[in-house]
Design a protein that fits this description.
Strand order of the largest sheet: 1-2
Helix content: 40-55%
Radius of gyration: 11 Å
CATH superfamily: Winged helix-like DNA-binding domain superfamily/Winged helix DNA-binding domain
Number of strands: 2
Shape: globular
Structural class: mainly alpha
Length: about 70
């Protein structure tokens, strides 16, 4: 189960990927989510990864992959 903020982030990632064929930067995520810190973006991405919705590829920019759909 995702929180409303996690759902908003997940939907943003999915839509951005569909429109641009690559994932947003953490700064773009920060701006869209109206967050004050990049570390908050890292935490939110970490929760989505922990819950099995996305996968991060270490040491690569924009390296996120959606691996499970939210329903």
């Amino acid at each position: 189960m995702l929180t409303p903020r996690q759902i908003k982030l997940f939907n943003f990632l999915k839509k951005y990927k569909e429109e641009n064929n690559y994932m947003p930067t953490f700064r773009e995520i920060k701006k869209h989510m109206n967050l004050k810190s990049i570390s908050t973006v890292h935490k939110m991405i970490g929760y989505l990864e922990f819950k099995g919705y996305i996968k991060r590829i270490p040491a690569m920019a924009r390296a996120l992959e959606i691996i499970k759909e939210y329903k």
